[in-house]
Amino acid sequence: MTAIVMSAMQGQSAFVLDATNRHPTEQSVRSNQIQPHDEQINRGQSEPEDRSGGPCFMYARILSRFWYVICLLVFLASAAFAVVVFTLYDLPDFTDPSKGYQPRGTDIASRVFSFQNLLHDSEDLLVDHPSRVVNSQSSNMTQTPVGWCWLTKETEEDKKNLEPAPGIQFCNSIWDWDDTVATLVLESVDGNILTPEALKSSCKAEERYVTSHPAYQDHCLCRGNHTDSDCPSVWSIGNYIALLSNKSSCADIEEEDISRTVDLCKLCAPFLYNVSGADLLKSNISDDFPCECAEHNFAIHTVLYYLLPTEFSLNIIRNTNPLISPFTLVFFPISGRSERVALDTIYVENIENKPDSDGVTKLKAVEFFIKFEVFPRLLYSDSLYLGIAGAAIFLLIWVYCGSILVTSAAVVNAVLSLVLAYFLYTSIFQRPFFPFGNVVTAVLIIGIGADDTFVFMDLWKKFKSELGDQDLPRLLHKTLRHTAATMSVTSLTTASALYTTAVSDIPFVKCFAVFAGTAIVMNLVLTMTLLPAVIVMQHKLTIWCCSSLTCKPKRDIKEMIFERLNVFHQNLVPFLVLKLRWIWIILFLSLMAGSVVVVFLYPTLRLPATPIFQIFASSHPFEQFDFIYRDQMSYLKSKFPDHVGSIVWGVQAADNGDTWNPDDLGTLSLDESFQLSDPEDQTWLLDFCRDLQSQPFYRAGQATGCFIEDFISFMKSPDCANPLIGFNLSPCCNQSGFPYEPALFTSCVAKYTNAGFLPTVFLRNKDSEIAVLTVPFQTTYPSSFNYDTSNEFWTTVDAWVREKVDSAPVSLQRGWFVSDSIAIRFYDLQESLRKGVPVAMLLTLATASLILFLTTRNILLTLWAMLTITSTVFVVVAILVLLGWELNVVEATIITLAVGLSIDFTIHYGVAYKLSPLKTRRQRARYSLTTMTPPISMAALSSFLAGALVLPARVLAYYQIGLFLMLVMVVSWVYGTFFFQSLCTVAGPQNFCGDVPYPEVSQKFPQSDQDLGKDVEAGCGLQTSNNTLPPTKGIFTITPVE
């Protein structure tokens, strides 16, 4: 995450290393400096003079003289780009936060979208909509009375039972509205809602939260119809108890009324448990059904099925005492589908910021069907926490750097990074979709920007103390050449890890990868342009002020605040690492092994089990309803129908839309090679349909929708003058010979299709020939969101269809199977997450390995660093698994960041180890620790703080990225400091051990191959008499930019 190569803080031994000379130049050392534990670091040769040429030096001269031009150019360019992108392009729309979750380009997505285009984008076809197989499970409903006491019995007593009590007047039965009306969940503080106090409190809550609002009065259902008042009564447990007790209001309820209703529930629960309103109309209810249970339009059924949890009915059946219910649902007669604006107003004004309890009952959950409508507002309002995080980081930078001007520049860097990234993303890359996940990039940029500022300022002060401030170009040159390469390595590593995840099939993940990666690159560019220009301005202002005033040296505020921490970094940490190295290695390897078990064996990183996507924190009332109370209510328990599948010929299964744009589903692409007129094709299709009906996944007794069977029946019909279509069907009748001649087949199919008798056949407009054929059928597999169930269904049926189609005549070999259902689309998402996340993480690990190798040019360091990074990733993911995370879209996006954010600390430690002028592993490890631990700790602290301060956010993505940042910072710091350094102490490279030869080495330091081989052997642990270490040249960090 960080981009830090900083010197040791004041009061420590610090060194400046040149790429062409690996000997240290000792900084001014205080009298209380901390010497290395094993051996004091001797003064080396002075660093050679900087060359006065090269692009880096030229850039330093320009910055030192024309710093104001650089600032002006940056601000003007940023302003121009901002004007372009914010005026010529629409602002992002976050009203549907789940947009972009559907995978694109997958086999299933290609089939589903092609099938949808066939149904809705078939202008070239005569028949627009093929028939669907009707679910027999839902088509056998009969209006059979329940027992002998159904309400059709016209007696005066029955009519009396049907008449509502005065004041209690419902808008028909809740059956008629089911789960389409606004709902609240009220819970008793004492644990039992079935008490007079709790019920009266809930009645007051109904009015306080909803019914008193003018928007409810204006938009309620049945307003003025079937009731004496403007709006009907609320469907609540209090009103139903009052109704069953002939009370006019729930405010009049007494203890005996509740007891009588509970007794009635005990009588009816065995008959009504888990029985829907539609089931009551069927004939499978017992003849012993008590008439009392049918009073007031099955009021007790409403109580048990809609208002009280399923557990209440189960407790009755189990004879559990005492019989209580902790909560109840309240249904309001206002549509959640068509009155969302009114419900949004009610929620904002009466619920969102109002007390949720009166001391007796508490509002626990809300279902107003406005979760997506509320999301943009909360996304923007929760940006306040980003501001708080930014302010805290601002203060931290100010304290550490001691300059308000530089601190302001760091904040401006972060803001402009996002603006420039948005411009490139929208205007240059032309990405049409901007998901809400891109907004959380701000959290990353806040932390990264702070880290880069720590780097630059620390090195600037370090070199200024060595060189003085008279030669500004040289001072700036040395700072730039030692920061540019390392910052580039760390920033580009994180950006590359993000760009790599763009291979995902999920548009949400792809778009986030591109935007976040671009923002990090822009932050690097601004850090190397605007930040040094502002530092030069600060330098010149300081000189100008001190020229007219007496400037007394003062103790650095950074040193005063962090002096005690320096003792920890310089003494305790190296001591613990070097003395307990074997313990750390065994401990952290064991921790990694345990994490592997957690991630892959138990409890494992689970795939999502519901298509309801969580977008707010778990405590939010919308999410409470979806993920806590939904599964406890009988009326909301999923009752999945069986899967309906279709085999399609004549359409190419291709997702030819823009895979970056969730709204672009492509266009219908016909398969020109498809034809069905040959007798061989007709015979094969008939055999295929018969074979399909014999398969175990086919639901017996259901028609396949296979047109060839119906077509043969039509052709055999002796009546050629069909009165239904009004014209003579000859010669398409009285035909007993099958298969038919191509000309006869084509003309007769056109006649029957035009007449509407073959709805699964599509004809071309231009020639009335068969263009598309579908064979719909119903399966025995239930439609389920469970991955294993859906996977078994898809793989079984698809494998059988593929096998049959492969053996078909050539013109029929491009058919394919599809099931256009929510369950299959969700299965496609699950499969993309299951396959895509490991692939993305492996690619990011490979990219990180390459950059590490190019940075250190040492095989051993690369090996130990990758072991450290892999361990860090496993531990972080294991912790998330134990915290209950599922591998959903946002979670997958965040988890793929683990590699990019875990690598930076290890890179810095590895580079410092490589640059060490000392020879033994122990000395090099100590040098790396004493040099790098303080700045790395500050970087980790800043990112940790940025994550911690967004945890209170109500938007789940903010919370998750904050928690993830905190975990990654802690785990990567601990693993990098203790595990990686322990590995280097035990088995790190010495001298040339593990180095990859570089051509320039032999040119600059001519020696025989034999001598070089001796040095390499000595570096790997053998004795050597050489005291002078020949230099090695790296590509990024080891070779500063000239």
Automatic annotation (TrEMBL):
It is a multi-pass membrane protein. Residues 409-537 form the SSD domain. One of its GO terms (molecular function) is transmembrane transporter activity. Residues 26-51 are annotated as: Disordered. The chain crosses the membrane at residues 66-89, 378-398, 404-425, 432-450, 512-535, 582-602, 836-854, 861-883, 889-911, 932-951, 957-980. Residues 26-35 have a biased composition (Polar residues). Keywords: Glycoprotein, Membrane, Transmembrane, Transmembrane helix. Residues 36-51 have a biased composition (Basic and acidic residues). One of its GO terms (biological process) is smoothened signaling pathway. Signal peptide: none annotated. GO terms for cellular component: membrane. It is found in: Membrane. Its main location: membrane. InterPro entries: Dispatched_Hh_regulator, HMGCR/SNAP/NPC1-like_SSD, SSD. Belongs to the dispatched family. This is SSD domain-containing protein. It comes from Patiria miniata. The lineage of its organism: Eukaryota, Metazoa, Echinodermata, Eleutherozoa, Asterozoa.
